[in-house]
Amino acid sequence: MANNDEFILEEEDYYALKITKTILHKLLKRFDLSPLKIIGIGNFLYALERLPLKTEGVNSYVELSYTAGNEIFHESKTFGFRIEEEIFEIEVSGYVHDEFVGGDGIRYPGWYIEADGGRDTEADLVVLEEELSEFLNMGINVSVDDYSEIKYEIE
Length: 155
Known about the structure:
Helices cover 30% and strands 37% of the residues. By secondary structure, it is α+β, with helices and mostly antiparallel strands.
């Protein structure tokens, strides 16, 4: 049983964390990111490495998005990764728009865990990992929102 300073993690959660860590490292290696994006991803990785321990002050979100199509029909897909002091999340969403029919947002199963054990973990992690690997080769946009105020522990 975890204490108040730790997330309550199950075995599959560690696989979701591994997928996230791998994707973030690939972003750092493959993309020409701004210094602020690199710092944000670094804060995310720092907190990720410490899990199941909570990281006070972490507040980082990394989003990968891709849009294809034209004015008549286009679709987009987004993978979002969030880590906060009490939350870890992988969210997957999309949007389809047809000029004649209109548009509709789509939410796919994701992975959401709260430090106290609350969870919504419906994603098939093997499929998610495969989709993310393919997604990195599609000319994606990478955005990072980081509002972390971490007091780093020196190792």
